[in-house]
Amino acid sequence: MAGASNFGRGLVADQIRLFVFGHGYSAAAITRAMKDRAAWIGGTVRSAEKAAWLDAEGISACVFDGTTPGSGISAALSEATHILVSIAPGEDGDKVIAHHGPDILAARKIGWIGYFSTVGVYGNYGGAWVSEQTTPHPRPGRSTIRLEAEQAWQALALNRDVPLARFRIAGIYGPGRNALKNLEEGKARRIVKTGQVFNRIHVADIAATVLAAIEQEAGGIFNLADDEPGPPQDVVEFAAGLMGVTVPSDMPFETADLSMMARSFYGDNKRVSNRRIGERLGVTLSYPTYREGLSAMWNAGNWRDNAGAD
User: Fold this and answer.
1) Residue (of 273, 269, 298) closest to 285 by Cα position
2) Residue 166 half-sphere exposure, CB side, CA atoms within 13 Å?
3) Which of 27, 67, 212, 309 is the S-S candidate for 50 at Cβ 3.0 to 4.6 Å?
4) Per-residue pLDDT of the chain (310 residues; tens, 9 = 90+)
């Protein structure tokens, strides 16, 4: 990651007080990277057992399951300087706004909000390139709901007069979630659909990009995707080569036994440009393609690892 910190309100790193709604896989990578840069980090999980795990990691935990306001969250928000939201909305809207929107509006120290969205909001572009300037036309269902949540957060941020960073994230992989582990567990399939490509992003590159946005208090839309959109079957083949195992046979998409959710991912076909994170945030990806990402995990032997409390 290139470039110096540019704190809009004269902050230095140890003045950051970060509160994360939804301390899951990607958020855990971010809070690990932030530990030496922040004065305090808090976050939500969905159970008391997970809260105990998070507290043991040095992160102040609040329980929030999205059905009622979480105990202690209002007080934590009143002292937070930065908020990151990685909880997906439901059919009835954004759960964080519904239960803690007024707390965020009342929290006078907040200077930045980040929201995790998905590249799914762009919809299907027939394999063409999309950027942050591309008009979204998401499919009805999850992607439409996600775009509506983005818009709700934009309205809240404008009301609160703070920058909002909307992170539209491609397929996430990293330690514990990757083709190497899927092959070992017998879950990897080479589903082939002619012309289909996907972008992906290593969780460490998500963390680096979000840290850059936090430190610069940057607002706007940012695509978090790798440099090389490609066919999903190629990723499995490369991982099998690293492991020295047999490449699974091709499985035509038309006859593959897929859940409705899994099949829906193949309904969108696009190439996602990540140029803006370099131009605006000074970020250079550590893993520009799946080859670097999978090779690094295989060589380090950490491809089975997993972390995250939510």
Assistant:
1) 273
2) 21
3) 309
4) 333 333 344 455 568 999 999 999 999 999 999 998 899 999 999 999 999 999 999 999 999 999 999 999 999 999 999 999 999 999 999 999 999 999 999 999 999 999 999 999 999 999 999 999 999 999 999 999 999 999 999 999 999 999 999 999 999 999 999 999 999 999 999 999 999 999 999 999 999 999 999 999 999 999 999 999 999 999 999 999 999 999 999 999 999 998 888 888 899 999 999 999 999 999 999 999 999 999 999 999 999 997 776 7
- The Cα-based distances of 5 to 1, 39, 213, 219 in angstroms read 11, 16, 9, 14
The number of C-alpha atoms within 13 Å of 239 and in the hemisphere containing its C-beta is 27
CA distance 100 to 97: 5
| Pairing label, strands 112-118, 82-85 | parallel
Distances (CA, A) of 52 to 30, 44, 49, 77, 309: 19, 11, 5, 20, 10
CB contact set of 166 (below 8 Å; sequence gap of 6+): 115, 117, 150, 153, 154, 220, 221, 222
Dihedral angle at the C-alpha atoms of 66, 69, 74, 75, nearest 10 degrees? -100
Residues 6+ apart with CB under 8 A from 68: 99
Question: What is the number of other CB atoms lying within 10 angstroms of the CB of residue 185?
Answer: 9
Q: What is the pTM of this model?
A: 0.94
d(CA 234, CA 260): 23
Q: Which CATH superfamily is domain 13-173+201-229+269-288 in?
A: NAD(P)-binding Rossmann-like Domain (3.40.50.720)
Say if residues 172 and 206 touch (Cβ distance below 8 Å).
Answer: yes
